Amino acid sequence: MARKETPKKTTPTKTTPVRNTPLPKPQAIKPTTAPISTPKVIITHEMIAKRAFEISLSGRGDQVSNWLQAERELKGVR
C-alpha cells in the first residue's frame, strides 16, 4: 500500500507590501530670514498712572477700574 503524503503545515511568510508610487523627493530646506521684530515697549508705573489720570478726568469709573483700564490699553490687551 502506498502511503498518502500529508501536506506539511507551514507558517505563512510575512511580506512587505509593494509600494506602487515612487518615494517623495525630500523638500529642500529654504533659508529663512528672521522676522523683523519690533522692540518691546516697557510699560512703567508712571505711564500707567498718567493714563489712569487721563481716564479719571473723563469722569468714568473709580481709581482701580481706571488703573486696570490704563494697563489694558497700554499693553494692548482687550
Brief summary of the model shown:
The chain is an all-alpha fold. The chain contains 2 helices and no strands.
Q: Determine the strand fraction and express it as a percent band.
A: under 5%
Annotation, overall tally of beta strands:
0
What is the arithmetic mean of pLDDT? Answer: 81
Low-confidence stretches: none
What does the radius of gyration come to?
38 Å
Number of helices: 2
Molecular structure report:
Helix content is 33%, strand content 0%. The radius of gyration is 38 Å and the shape is elongated. It has a domain at 45-75. With 78 residues, the chain is mainly alpha-helical. The chain has helices at 45-57, 63-75. The longest helix has 13 residues, at 45-57. Helix 1 (45-57) crosses helix 2 (63-75).
